[in-house]
Amino acid sequence: MVSMQKKSIHLLSKLAVPLKSKGRFFKEKKNDLRSDFQRDRDRIIHSTAFRRLKHKTQVFVNTSGDHYRTRITHSLEVAQIARTLSKYFNLNEDLCETLSLAHDLGHTPFGHAGEEALNKCMKKFGGFDHNIQTIRTILFLENRYYEFKGLNLTLETLDGLLKHNGPIKNLKRYNKILGKNYFKNKIKFLFSPSLEAQIASISDDIAYNSHDLEDGLKSNLFILNDLEHIPVLKNIINKHKKKLKKFSIDLIIRQIIREVINEMVKDIIITTQNNLEKYKIKKLEDVYNSKYPIVNFSKKMKVFDKKIKSFLRKKMYFHKKVRNNTNLGKKIINRLFISIKKNPKRYINVSKYDKSNIDRSICDFIAGMTDRYAINLYKRIK
Q1: Three-state DSSP class for 31?
Q2: DSSP string spanning 299-342?
Q3: CA Rg, the chain, in Å?
Q4: Contacts of 312 (CB under 8 A, 6+ apart)
Q5: Sign of the CA dihedral running 220, 221, 227, 232
Q6: Phi, psi of 150 (to 5 degrees)
Q7: How far apart are CA 13 and CA 16, in angstroms?
Q8: What angle do CA 98, 101, 103 make, to 5 degrees?
Q9: Which of the pair, 198 or 219, is modelled with greater confidence?
Q10: Which of 370, 338, 368 is nearest to 353 (CA)?
Q11: CB count, 10 Å around CB of 114?
């Protein structure tokens, strides 16, 4: 098994994060059966926070239908796209998959509406950010080991999750939410993220756009004709609309979404190859020192990405039906925060949390809730 891992290391691109990690915060014995990043991935999959994503909504409140995306289906879809790209560039697939599966662990119930409400509740205490909450979850809140708190993931995985949106130039918010200088110079915040992290991040974008389009079409918030003015989509839709007499609209929507994903993935491959040549990226150090991002869309696809996001914001996220749900979500989060703060011991095991910062502990508790748990607790205390 060890020789197999050595063979894999040899086969990886020089741009890849090696299969042997630089280490973890707390030293652990190596495992002969799994590489460092396979262990990271398995820790994410077995975590409580990951299982809870099953009942956290992407856009719709969970009670509105069985086939809309939840955070867990979204994370799995991101991982699938990321592995495809990672395999093409001969990178560290396990790291790529780990980052994709873990990137939404810090999300609140009720999607971005919940995040907005919780950020408002925490305004005086450092605010709330779902990306930083993902790191809190991994470092402090998941307790599954005798020897340490958190999941003790590799430094490369932590680096990729911290830099989900690129290099970090201002640590103020991180220091407030995570604790000052927690990483003790183990993370180089100003360096660009690994190609694996960049792939996980852009795969998140692809999955979000394409699958929200599918959910929006299936829920009749908009129709195919509404999308015809969007570049890239226009040609794909016109090609498939001709088959309406022969096939169901559901099948045609699936085919369109598949083709949209395919076009975006192909575009990233071509653009990334061009960037690797343009910036003379030959080894991993070059990636860390490079201009960010290397993994990117072409100008044409960036226009498409911008137009899709703008369209979804207008026709889906701000749709009356969705707004009613998101407003209810905000109301629930606000009420829960106020009620729990009046009597924390009634709702949470205070000994498990940081007594010196009870507001942050309440925030952790609420952020970890599923949609239905939050709704049920709200009904009990209403």
Answers
A1: coil
A2: HHHHHHHHHHHHHHIIIIITSHHHHHHHHHHHHHHHHHHHHHHH
A3: 22
A4: 209, 212, 213, 216
A5: negative
A6: 80, -170
A7: 5
A8: 100
A9: 198
A10: 368
A11: 26
Kindly report, residue by residue over 305-337, the tens digit of the pLDDT.
Answer: 999 999 999 999 888 888 888 899 999 999 999
**Residue span of the structural domain in which 125 resides:** 33-193+335-381
Place of tokens 């990306």: 131
- Please give the share of the chain, as a percent, with pLDDT higher than 90: 80
Distance CA 275, CA 160 (A): 20
Given a contact cutoff of 8 angstroms between Cβ atoms, the answer to whether 110 and 57 are in contact is: yes
Query: How far is Cα 162 from Cα 356, in angstroms, rounded to an integer?
Result: 25
Tokens at residue 107, please?
Answer: 């999300």
CA atoms within 13 A on the CB side of 348: 25
Residue 277 placed within a domain: yes
| Angle of helix 195-218 versus helix 155-162 axis, rounded to 10 | 50
Verify that 49 and 114 share a domain, yes or no: yes
Share of the chain above pLDDT 70, in %: 94
- 3-state SS assignment for residue 143: strand
Domain shared by 86 and 106, yes or no: yes
Find the CATH number of the domain harbouring 43.
1.10.3210.10
7 part of a folded domain:
no
Q: Does one domain contain both 78 and 186?
A: yes
pTM beyond 0.85, yes or no: yes
Distance CA 10, CA 19 (A): 10
